[in-house]
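Checklist before submission:
- one chain only
- standard amino acids only
- sequence pasted in full

Submission:
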Amino acid sequence: MEKLYRCVYLIAIFVAAVLVASSAEMFTDPNDLAALHDLYKTLNQLPQLTGWRLDGGDPCDDDEDWIGVACFGPAVAYLALNGLNLTGYISPKIGDMYYLQLLDISSNTIGGEIPHVLPPNATHINMADNYLSHNIPPCLHGMKSLRHLNLSHNLLSGPIGNVFTGLQNLREMDLSYNNFTGDLPSSFESLTNLTGLYLQNNRFTGSVSYLAELPLIDLNIECNYFSGIIPRHFQSIPNLWIGGNSLYLPGHNYLPPSGKAGKCH
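Returned file contents:
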């Protein structure tokens, strides 16, 4: 009987050790790990992504160092891959990273579309200075925590849909130096906490009335095809650039700042 108890005891120790080892191997949230694996693949498994693996690994383990990855407990919270000369495209599985707060892939040569699903709880997204094409995905309106969005210096084009509804926490947005066309969507006026907006060097047309009541401190709409009346509120915006458009203010000798109007298109 003593041998039986000893055998059971040893088996229990073995099982416990296996469970501990398994939990250690799976410390990183499985959805985050799967998303990183797929992202590594779509970014062409480049050597500058040091520490990354195509399968396996544990980026949230202190013993592993995946460049650009930072965790809070088992969740990937920050993904900063800016300026690494990355190519390829952004994996659509990045939208599965539920706890991701910051996504920065700026200053690379990444192409393709912005994924139709993005990390739902992100507060900062920076995809500037790449070769992203097509348009802003409609999933944006569901990102209630988003505070900073930078999509500047890309190849984004076409009229922007009503994708900004529900983004009351958005503080700064930069869509400059793309090929956006058409009128501004009405959902711009729902950005009631927006203090910085940069739309310069696109091909926007029509009125800027949807920006009239926003609490802007910085506004740059230079080098577009906006037309019509300048909202009176614009005169109270501390940092304002509106040159290179066909805007006017009736009854006032109002000259917009020259800014970069000489470099339009």
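Reviewer check: Residues 1-24, 257-262 have pLDDT under 50 and may be disordered.
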